[in-house]
Amino acid sequence: xxxxxxxxxxxxxxxxxxxxxxxxxxxxxxxxxxxxxxxxxxxxxxxxxxxxxxxxxxxxxxxxxxxxxxxxxxxxxxxxxxxxxxxxxxxxxxxxxxxxxxxxxxxxxxxxxxxxxxxxxxxxxxxxxxxxxxxxxxxxxxxxxxxxxxxxxxxxxxxxxxxxxxxxxxxxxxxxxxxxxxxxxxxxxxxxxxxxxxxxxxxxxxxxxxxxxxxxxxxxxxxxxxxxxxxxxxxxxxxxxxxxxxxxxxxxxxxxxxxx
Length: 260
Ligand code: ADP
Hints:
Shape: globular
Oligomer: single chain
Bound molecules: adenosine-5'-diphosphate
Number of helices: 8
């Protein structure tokens, strides 16, 4: 059945994920054990001079392992969302100072909100961390500087893959950079947990997958347009607060009417 297939695909992803993590973790443990073994043999042969260096290796390996588990925990902890009506344009403006500091001197930040906009039904903390994450990705994509446009508007989804979403309007938070962009292969994998093209220690590969999860849980959509050498635009389509409230009320009324 379709459900069984979906489940099997999920298990495959989980299998690949845990396999990769187990491999990394095992490498770190191997490093720690080897350092301990060597230190022990140095004690036995009476050459203590090399021992501090071995302890340093064991310590940094253990720290990396701890960092990995920490990130895993943060990822698996499905935070309960607390959606409330949020003025997304105001939220973006309130983060300008933080974003400017994050982006550095060579990247120009332009924040705009198009007119008085309806509120979005969204968890404000999660949206802030999503915006910060997107800005960090944009910064990393613009090593020689550039411009980051953060823009809030009201729009319908550009594509109509979801049959009932054709004329539904959303509050759209758009984050556009003039960076390196992504090729097809990167775009295809961008939402996969732990997918990163960044050097070890710089990227976790969790940012985009967490944003994807949060936007989906919120009842919104995420779309990316990216051109290698030109830049990337990420758009978060967030449900409008009134519409969300009306739909919830309709669903409740229907449930009452059908007695379900
Ligand atoms: P991380 O930033 O830790 O690598 P993410 O999940 O946030 O993890 O992003 C995954 C990958 O997607 C990045 O490593 C990068 O290759 C690509 N990516 C994300 N955002 C951008 C962007 N704005 N411009 C170019 N590439 C991006």
